[in-house]
Specification:
1 helix
């Protein structure tokens, strides 16, 4: 059924750890947060495009209105998928989604939040949600293990310029029991990486494309 969304194109230490999909480059980054020597919170992007593998809690994906102001925490007005969207708070808010996931060991192993209001991100999640809907009946109580299989260039024409963004192509490689770190709503949460400072990691980049990189071995990823 997809998400039913239109596809238009600092802070404290207790915010959810973030996974960011850069639609302009078609790359995935784990955003690690830690305090520096002065006590300021620092964000460090660590690229995990080639190693990405995660249990994604598509069952509990949320949709609504998202605004990502510069140098400030995002403002998200969200409801569980299938419920009517709340009123749009402002013209700066755009339709989008938020979903929680548990990363595979090779790309961090912790719980992350991915949220986006970019058109290509919504389109990619629509396809993944449809695949989840088709497969969940044969996998009751389970969640999909997902990899980034590919990206597809999508060009859009503005008044004066043409821009290119990259739609993620997510692929379900298997289904596993729901991890304890991704509890159902209303269940007691399991302490994972909440409230703990993440070490500042060295930012990494790669020139390899997703197509050139083989998915990580999932034998003991979770």
């Amino acid at each position: 059924m997809a998400l039913g969304l239109p596809q238009s194109s600092g802070g404290s230490g207790d915010r959810s750890a973030v996974l960011k999909y850069d639609a302009r480059a078609g790359r995935l980054f784990r955003v690690d947060r830690a305090q520096d020597s002065a006590g300021n919170w620092v964000n460090t992007p660590v690229e995990i495009t080639r190693t990405f593998q995660a249990v994604i809690d598509i069952e509990q994906i949320e949709t609504g209105w998202l605004h990502f102001p510069k140098a400030a925490a995002p403002d998200m007005r969200l409801v569980p998928i299938g419920q009517p969207l709340p009123d749009k708070p402002s013209n700066d808010h755009r339709a989008g989604f938020r979903v929680m996931m548990k990363l595979g060991k090779d790309c961090g192993g912790d719980v992350r939040e991915m949220a986006s209001n970019a058109g290509v991100s919504i389109a990619g999640m629509d396809v993944l949600h449809d695949a989840y809907t088709k497969g969940v009946a044969a996998n009751p109580g389970k969640l999909p293990v997902v990899v980034l299989k590919d990206t597809v260039a999508v060009k859009s024409q503005g008044q004066e310029t043409t821009s290119t963004n990259y739609q993620p192509v997510w692929d379900i490689v298997k289904w596993i029991d729901r991890p304890a770190e991704l509890p159902l709503r209303g269940a007691p949460p399991v302490a994972a990486n909440e409230g703990k400072a993440q070490p500042v990691a060295q930012a990494r980049t790669t020139s390899q494309t997703v197509e050139e990189a083989a998915p990580a071995d999932d034998a003991d990823q979770f």
